[in-house]
């Protein structure tokens, strides 16, 4: 299941969208929960986990510095740079 998660940073990916980050988060939640789609009574917890992991992944990609590439590559996820909070994850 998680083999379909792609690396979302340069040089492996030049253009990363919100949808790409969310898809990776969804695959991760599916893997660790063991559910492809949760039952109704677990849907809220499943959706919240996907959103939290999406947000954490966006912050991570915005903060990464790739050696030899200079500063964070703005083409990776321009929105991440404006949403990235200062301080700890």
Task: Tell me about this structure.
With 89 residues, the chain is mainly α. The chain is elongated. The protein has one domain. 48% of the residues lie in helices and 0% in strands. It is built from three helices and no strands. The mean pLDDT is 81. Helix 1 packs across helix 2.
What is the element layout, followed by pairings?
Layout: H1 18-33, H2 43-63, H3 78-83
Biggest sheet descriptor: none
Task: Write down the overall mean pLDDT.
Answer: 81
Number of strands: 0
The helix tally amounts to 3
SSE string = HHH
Helix vs. strand class: mainly alpha
Q: Low-confidence stretches at least 5 residues in length (pLDDT < 50)?
A: none
**Any idea what the shape is?**
elongated
Radius of gyration: 14 Å
Q: How many domain regions?
A: 1
Tell me what portion of residues adopts beta-strand conformation.
Answer: under 5%
Distance between the termini: 26 Å
């Amino acid at each position: 299941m998680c083999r379909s998660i792609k690396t979302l940073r340069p040089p492996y990916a030049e253009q990363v969208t919100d949808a790409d980050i969310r898809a990776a988060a969804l695959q991760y939640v599916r893997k660790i929960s063991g559910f492809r789609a949760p039952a109704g009574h677990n849907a809220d917890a499943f959706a919240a986990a996907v959103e939290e992991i999406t947000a954490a992944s966006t912050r991570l990609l915005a903060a990464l510095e790739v050696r030899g590439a200079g500063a964070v590559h703005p083409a990776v996820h321009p929105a991440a740079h404006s949403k990235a909070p200062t301080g700890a994850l």
